[in-house]
Design goal:
Radius of gyration: 31 Å
CATH class of the largest domain: Alpha Beta
Shape: elongated
Distance between the termini: 86 Å
Largest sheet: 7 strands, parallel
Helix content: 25-40%
Order of helices and strands: HEEEHEEEHHEHEHEEHEHEHEHHEHEEE
Mean pLDDT: 85
């Protein structure tokens, strides 16, 4: 049915409700206006008129939205949108953001980006104001010093620089593979510190699949290393959007993610990114437009291809790799050795005379004569006599022989 809608119907029935859901008040002409002429652009069929102009509180055009009917791709408005943004930028202090939509798809573009990207929904006025502030005040990530009070090991600094280089290259996702014990939490805090001081992020979310990891990030991470930043844990029943740093379990966020707009977070960090919950979490990942960083201690050759794909590593090479053998070689971890121990039962065996009355009765119920029992070790096979399995509460199963000479 939606494919039969003309552009006017598409706007009224599909696009307008989506803008309202993003907190745009369509009846407030100081914030939203329709079909605003753009000077100097008279070519047919566009006539130099924007479909939607979204304004900031100072009266500047914050964003332009070009609408297409459902049966046309929003990307057909690429050239048109770029021209409108360029012309509007000549008459105010900044270039507005750009949206293209047909009621089924929404694409987002801004000056400095080569291509638009598809998003799950319109950004709210607050989202765009924050993105504008970041655009106007940001510094290159690689120009910001790393806080050595948080991380002081060479490989930790290298991991942060690799992520910074990835985002500087206009990529939006990165994957860090680091062995357990090499300081992923500290690296995460130092990375977030760099993003905050570079004015490339203001709202940041840390996600994990277990309560213990989330609590660790909130206390040992944010509270310890970024104590001056407002922080909070997200619960389904409590979402405080006034904070800047957030933690949540993936299970919780999957139940309440639509309480946030797609543009609410600037950066999302996924701890233990390889876990299978990603198969059920894909919808949430694709909902948010934030830049994303995945963390995992699982060796690279054990990570499934989906995890590499989700974090933009299509060649199955992570953004940064620091595995256990190298950490041991560089003396940041101590190698382990296996220690084998035997229980008293394994060392001494079981003799019928040593059993409690309860155990003797248990054996009798199994058809075994306790007085004929002499079980000294687990046997893979019985070299004569009847081979049976002993089942006693609190003792491992044991193969034994009942010899006719006993």
């Amino acid at each position: 049915m939606s494919l039969e809608l003309n552009e006017s119907q598409t706007r009224a029935l599909l696009i307008n409700p989506q803008l309202v859901a993003a907190n745009w008040k369509l009846d407030d002409r100081s914030l939203v206006r329709f079909e605003i002429p753009v000077d100097g652009y008279d070519a047919e069929p566009w006539n130099g008129v924007t479909d939607y102009c979204l304004y900031d509180y100072a009266g500047n055009v914050l964003a332009v939205n070009e609408a297409k009917r459902c049966c046309r791709s929003p990307r057909n408005a690429d050239e048109q949108l770029r021209h409108y943004v360029t012309e509007i930028a000549k008459r105010q202090s900044y270039a507005p953001f750009g949206f293209m939509s047909n009621g089924r798809e929404i694409w987002f573009w801004e000056v400095g980006q080569a291509n638009p990207r598809q998003i799950a929904g319109f950004f709210s006025p607050e989202d765009l104001q924050r993105l504008l502030f970041l655009r106007q005040h940001q510094h290159p990530l690689e120009s910001v010093s790393i806080n050595t009070a948080i991380v002081d090991r060479p490989y930790q600094h290298e991991s942060i620089r690799r992520v910074c280089e990835t985002f500087a290259a206009k990529r939006r996702r990165a994957l860090l593979v680091m062995a357990t014990g090499t300081g992923k939490t500290r690296v995460t805090m130092a990375l977030i510190d760099v993003f905050l001081r570079a004015h490339q992020a203001q709202t940041i979310l840390f996600l994990a699949d277990r309560d213990a990891l989330v609590d660790q990030a909130l206390t040992d991470g944010f509270k310890a290393h970024l104590p001056n930043e407002p922080r909070d844990r997200i619960y389904t029943w409590n979402v405080d959007k006034t904070k800047r740093l957030f933690v949540a379990t993936e299970q919780t966020l999957s139940l309440c993610y639509e309480k946030f707009s797609p543009g609410f977070f600037d950066l999302i960090v996924f701890d233990e990114a390889h876990r299978s919950i990603f198969k059920r979490f894909a919808e949430v990942i694709e909902y948010f437009d934030a830049r994303m960083i995945g963390l995992t201690a699982t060796p690279a050759n054990f990570i499934d291809r989906d995890t590499f794909r989700v974090f933009g590593c299509d060649t199955k090479i992570p953004t940064f790799l620091y595995e256990y053998p190298l950490a041991v070689k560089e003396k940041f971890l101590v190698d382990f050795s296996l220690y084998q121990a035997q229980t008293g039962f394994q060392r001494k065996g079981v003799k019928g005379a040593d059993l409690t009355e309860e155990d003797r009765n248990t054996l009798i119920e199994q058809g075994i004569d306790p007085d004929a029992l002499d079980c000294k070790r687990r046997l893979k096979s019985a070299a004569g006599g009847a081979r049976k399995v002993l089942h006693l509460p609190g003792k491992e199963d044991c193969f034994f022989r009942v010899s006719s000479s006993c």
